[in-house]
Design brief:
The complex is a heterodimer of chains A (about 150) and B (about 650). Chain A contains 3 helices and 9 strands. Chain A is about 30% helix and about 30% strand. The longest helix of chain A has 29 residues. The termini of chain A are far apart. By secondary structure, chain A is α+β, with helices and mostly antiparallel strands. Chain A has 2 domains: about 35 residues; about 110 residues, OB fold (Dihydrolipoamide Acetyltransferase, E2P) (Beta Barrel), CATH 2.40.50. A 5-stranded mixed beta barrel of chain A has the order 2-4-5-7-6. Chain A has a two-stranded antiparallel sheet with strand order 8-9. Chain B is of the alpha+beta class and about 650 residues long. Helix content of chain B is about 65%, strand content about 10%. In chain B, the strands form 2 sheets. In chain B, strands 3, 4, 5, 6, 7 and 8 form a 6-stranded antiparallel beta sheet that branches. Chain B has a 4-stranded antiparallel beta sheet with strand order 2-11-10-9. Chain B is globular and about 80 Å long. The C terminus of chain B is likely disordered. Classes of the chains: A alpha+beta (about 150), B alpha+beta (about 650). The interface between A and B is large, with 42 and 52 residues.
């Protein structure tokens, strides 16, 4: 093989691998991305039931009910609308009423959000950024103090 | 007083860094030995002053001097002594101080041990290293000064985030930082080579040990972080594809590619331009990792505080060094002379294959990590890219890479015969087939994909040993002959073999723990028993205990297998008064390389307790494999060739390029 051919093989295989990577990314993007929604977004019913989404907001005060066999029911609110959420399992350490929370799951046809995961937080001061933005949209975020009104 | 000394030392380090940024570079240009000789002492003095600043901050923590804001916010007088030391870097300011400490340490090491470097290269490398250092000293002094005082010293501190009060965390950041920052040396060497406009095989030989040392520490640092997340976060997972994890994985992938391309450059004088680019990219990814983690763009346990000025400052450093490095590359790289030729089927070809797939895998992680951020800035749409995305993109790119891992060391340089090499890998192929058949038989036809994964792991492990077995004549010649031959092999050959073997071990752990792990979440009353696999755990009751700065409730469990007690497990919930927060301490019971994992949930009103129980088969192999990789790297690092240092490069015509 002469130098030019060798270089061609090299460039050809590089382009091939990059194309493969790009193809994989595009395929994965179309099938495995989860969108974030605020309670207001979900309550408006823009979403078809059965789509996996993230729902974030504050755990409504006084809404947490524990049932048998680790079933939990609570409401997630952004101050405007509240969405009932059901979850079975162990809640993270910092799950509390009035605190920010992000859940991932599916909206059911009866208007109840069935969560597969409730995301843990690392720090008591930590508020998920998505939740902050959702609260800001409803004018329920106190700038500067880093706390909901 | 001590804090002021620390602050002053840091200012002096900045002044020294500015001198070291300029004087040696001018010296290298004018070929003035006196000016170039400035670099060595300033690099050592810089390290001494940053060391002094670090000691000053540590002293503040150890003596619980709450008049220092940083200590007040992150320490507590009742905290155990070990955590007083580790909380120095358990916050933004302190961790940046650790960052520059390691940066100046690497500069000092080059100054002290780079005696065989050509004087102009050494002067330029130290100057470039100092540009980076100066930028970060300025960043600390302007936006993140750890030595600020409070007018009125409070009586008690606010305590360290409880989740960070852990031994794993004591080791994870320094290791990770040595890795991140170690790549700055490769970067400095690359920039110095571009400034000088010449580069040869000797360059690669000088860069390789630094890159290797950084890579080893990064490998172990990532593994530590993953093990910490595994037992401390209480979910039993070892890798979450969290953006912060990805930020450390990207420099690792690029650094691994750099390590392999530097071999080609050293041995065959080829791939020079590509190696330089990889060196720049690897450190750029380290810088980007620092930016993502420290700027508050991502919220996670690593984001201690988000102050917008800091983000902007780090972004400026990022743009300056990445942009400047790549611009210099675009300008100077075409002047570098291309080196040795090779056929596609050769060891060089195999290493190019490695580089292509590693960088492509790195690119998919890059897109998956930054795409959500970019999308949010551009369209205000929020998405999350999680494990499914990475499993779909990263895994298919890594499988071909793993298939070629044992192939590379068996391929001859320049031109090879694929068929002959494949024949030599027969043993590995047979081992893989046995592993697949065995797995399918034991799991009664369990997931085929996972069985193939086990086969791949067996192939990588046996394949890595093939080269060694052939070169020593193991199994073919008498054992004593083989041993004599093994003694004659260079340590770098052992290093390659062991590191590749470790990769196979980690893969086996990942496949097994991810596929055959079982989980049970139940609510238990004292006296009740829960069973998982062949284990029966009985809940013996709750015990309260007072720790140094927390109160904990321990659930006592005894574990039985076939009626015999094999151990006890004591998961706990700790509540920290100072921060009004709690952590869950999982209990682990190790059986061989497998683990039982027990973590607590909330107590119910009726005295019952929610528990989460996992059985993780062979999970420890994941981290044992990375430890093996680390050892392989260490063996390679101790190779005589690298230890003694490279001979002086030929000062003759053909291989060298004039500066101007």
């Amino acid at each position: 093989m002469i130098r030019k051919q060798r270089r061609l093989v090299l460039i050809g295989s590089s382009v091939g691998v990059l194309a493969l990577a790009a193809g994989l990314i595009l395929y994965a993007m179309s099938s495995s991305i989860v969108f974030f929604n605020s309670p207001t977004d979900l309550a408006d019913g823009k979403l078809a039931p059965g789509t996996a989404v993230r729902l974030g907001g504050l755990v409504k005060e006084g809404s947490v009910q524990r049932g048998a066999n680790l079933a939990v029911r609570f409401e997630v609110t952004d101050g405007n609308r509240a969405i009932p959420v059901t979850f079975v399992g162990i809640l993270p350490d910092l799950f509390r009423e009035g605190q920010g929370v992000v859940t991932e799951g599916k909206m059911q046809s009866d208007g109840v959000f069935k969560a597969d995961t409730v995301l843990a937080k690392h720090d008591e001061n930590y508020m998920p950024k998505e939740v902050v933005d959702a609260l800001k949209k409803q004018g329920r975020w106190e700038e500067g103090s880093g706390k909901p009104k | 007083m001590i804090a002021e000394i620390g602050h002053y030392a840091l200012v002096l380090a900045l002044a020294l860094a500015l001198v070291q940024s300029i004087v040696p570079a001018i010296g290298a240009r004018r070929r003035d030995d006196t000016l170039m000789a400035v670099a060595g002492p300033t690099a050592l003095a810089q390290f001494a002053f940053v060391g002094l600043a670090f000691v000053a901050l540590t002293a503040g923590y150890v003596t619980s001097d709450f008049s220092v804001v940083n200590v007040f916010e992150n320490s507590h007088s009742e905290m155990p002594l070990i955590y007083k030391f580790t909380s120095v870097w358990g916050n933004h300011e302190g961790s940046m101080l650790l960052w520059v400490l390691i940066l100046s340490l690497f500069g000092a090491l080059v100054a002290a041990f780079g005696t065989n470097l050509p004087s102009t290269l050494k002067a330029n490398v130290l100057a470039v290293q100092s540009w980076i250092a100066a930028a970060f000293y300025l960043f600390i002094l302007v936006t993140s000064n750890p030595f600020l005082r409070l007018a009125q010293a409070p009586m008690e501190g606010r305590d360290l985030n409880p989740i960070l009060q852990d031994l794993g965390l004591a080791i994870h950041p320094p290791l990770l930082y040595i890795g991140y920052v170690g790549f700055s040396i490769s970067f400095s060497f690359a920039i110095a080579a571009l400034i000088e406009g010449r580069i040869d095989a000797a360059w690669a030989r000088w860069v390789r040990p630094w890159t290797l040392a950084a890579w080893m520490c990064l490998t172990l640092g990532i593994a530590m972080g993953s093990y910490w997340a595994y037992y401390e976060l209480g979910w039993g997972g070892f890798w979450f594809w969290d953006p912060v994890e990805n930020a450390s994985l990207m420099p690792w992938l690029a650094g691994t590619a750099l390590l392999h391309s530097a071999v080609v450059m050293e041995k065959r004088n080829a791939l020079k331009v590509w190696t330089i680019l990889l060196a720049i990219l690897t450190f750029s990814l380290s810088l980007m990792g620092t930016f993502l983690v420290r700027s508050g763009v991502l919220t996670s346990v690593h984001t201690f505080a988000s102050d917008p000025t800091r983000g902007v400052f780090i972004l400026a450093i990022l743009v300056l060094f990445i942009g400047g490095g790549l611009a210099l590359y675009a300008w100077r790289a075409p002047m570098l002379k291309q080196g040795g030729l090779f056929a596609p089927m050769s060891r060089e070809g195999a290493l190019v294959f490695n580089n292509l797939f590693l960088t492509a895998a790195c690119a998919t992680v890059f897109v998956g990590t930054l795409y959500p951020l970019a999308l949010e800035v551009l369209t205000d749409e929020k998405i999350s890219v999680g494990a499914p995305f990475f499993n779909l993109t990263f895994a298919p790119l890594f499988v071909p890479l793993l298939l070629v891992v044992p192939l590379g060391p068996l391929m001859p340089w320049k031109r090879g015969d694929l068929l002959a090499v494949v024949q030599r890998l027969m043993g590995a192929g047979i081992a893989a087939l046995f592993a697949i058949a065995g797995t399918l038989a034991v799991t009664s036809g369990g997931p085929v994909l996972a069985a193939l994964g086990v086969g791949l792991a067996a192939y990588v492990m046996v394949g890595s040993l093939t080269d060694f077995a052939e070169r020593t004549g193991l199994l073919r010649l008498p054992l004593s002959t083989a041993l004599t031959r093994a003694r004659g092999l260079p340590r770098s050959a052992f290093g390659t073999m062991i590191a590749h073997f470790g990769l196979g071990v980690s893969l086996l752990g990942i496949v097994c723990a991810a596929t055959w792990g079982t989980e049970k979440i139940v609510s238990l009353k004292p006296g009740a028993t829960v069973s998982l696999r062949s284990y029966d755990l009985s809940f013996d009751g709750l015990v309260a205990r007072q720790g140094p700065n927390y109160r904990e409730t321990i659930a006592k469990f005894s574990v039985r297998q076939g009626g015999n007690v094999i151990g006890t497990m004591e998961p706990a919930k700790r509540s920290f008064q100072a921060r009004q927060s709690s952590t869950t301490e999982a209990a682990l019971l190790t059986r061989g390389a497998s683990q039982l994992y027990l973590s607590l949930g909330d107590p119910g009103d009726d005295g019952s307790l929610a528990v989460r129980l996992y059985h993780k088969p062979l999970v420890l192999l994941i981290w044992i494999g990375t430890l093996i990789m680390f050892i392989g790297g260490g063996l390679s690092l101790s190779d005589r060739r690298l230890r003694i240092g490279a001979p002086k490069p030929a000062r003759s015509k053909s291989t060298l390029q004039p500066a101007e």
